[in-house]
Write a structure and sequence with these properties.
By secondary structure, this protein is of the alpha+beta class. The protein has a single domain (about 5-70), classed as Electron Transport, Fmn-binding Protein, Chain A (Pnp Oxidase, Chain A, Roll), CATH 2.30.110. The chain contains two helices and four strands; from the N terminus they run H-E-E-E-H-E. The chain has helices at about 10-15, 55-65, and strands spanning about 20-25, 30-40, 50, 70. A four-stranded antiparallel sheet has the order 3-2-1-4. Strand 1 (about 20-25) and strand 2 (about 30-40) form a beta hairpin. It starts with 7 loop residues before the first helix and ends in a 19-residue tail after the last strand. About 5% of the residues are buried.
Length: about 90
């Protein structure tokens, strides 16, 4: 895994230009939950966001603090790359 500080100026620029990130959590049964949230970061290593304590992702974090976040450059045009896979229960 690469630390955020190792990603360089492109990462810093994307974080600085973004106001929203997606935070992903998991419910008690393992079901995923992803929410867009407004965020702020002073250093690109620590991220702060505002959420109501009763929001599903807040409740999930209170019970299971493991999260994933995605911050992306939405000004980039779509690419022709694709992934495929099969989901099963």
């Amino acid at each position: 895994m690469t630390a955020a500080g190792d990603l360089g100026p492109r990462f810093d620029a994307i974080v600085a230009a973004s106001s929203y990130m997606t935070i992903a959590t998991a419910g008690a049964d393992g079901s995923p939950w992803a929410s867009p949230v407004w965020f702020a970061s002073a250093d690109g290593r620590e991220f702060l966001w505002i959420s109501k304590p009763g929001a599903r992702h807040s409740r999930n974090i209170a019970a299971r603090p493991e999260v994933a976040i995605a911050i992306f450059d939405s000004s980039q045009p779509p690419t022709t790359r694709s992934n495929s896979g099969r989901l099963s229960r």
